[in-house]
Amino acid sequence: MHTIIHRLDHSRFPSAEPTPAHRAPHYDCMDLPSALKLTVYVPGVDASGVEITTQGPDLFVTARKPHHVRVNWQALHLEGAQRDYQLKLRLGLGFDYEALEASVTRGVLTIVLPKSRLAHASPPDRHRQVA
């Protein structure tokens, strides 16, 4: 006697794993002669919700959306769409992080990060006598 046993399709059932608290935003990077320009897309975020920190060669951008509690609140699976943004980039030590400039306009965060003077210097010769 033959039996047909079908495997369960787990993609149709919600996972029991918790969703992460942040999601990674989309971003563009443009290398200018004297600076690095980052454009980070964070819709629904205003300037007061943006936090930019650096640690060594790393740049961390956290953008928090304003979370409104509605009077007629019902669970509509909006938790995923209302998560905050977090971006972690390892840019290196060739930038002047103290002179960083940032602005937010209509959900687009623009960061201009000037290159340090060492990065502007001409590249060293390939063959150099050491000893």
Q: Can you walk me through this structure?
A:
With about 130 residues, the protein is mostly beta strands. It has one domain: Immunoglobulin-like (Sandwich), CATH 2.60.40.790. Helices cover about 5% and strands about 35% of the residues. The protein contains one helix and eight strands; from the N terminus they run ββββββββα. The strands form two sheets. The protein has a four-stranded mixed sheet with strand order 1-6-5-4, with no helix packed on it. Strands 2-3-8-7 form a four-stranded antiparallel sheet, with no helix packed on it. The model has no long low-confidence stretch (mean pLDDT about 80).
Q: What is the radius of gyration computed over CA atoms, rounded to a whole number of angstroms?
A: 23 Å
Q: Remind me, CATH topology? A: Immunoglobulin-like
**Alpha carbon gap, first and last residue:** 84 Å
CATH architecture assignment name = Sandwich
Domain module count: 1
Largest sheet: 4 strands, mixed
Average pLDDT value?
A: 78
Strand tally: 8
Number of helices: 1
Sheet-strand content, in percent, reads: 35-45%
Helix content: under 10%
User: Spatial order of the strands in the main sheet?
Assistant: 1-6-5-4
The best one-word shape is: elongated
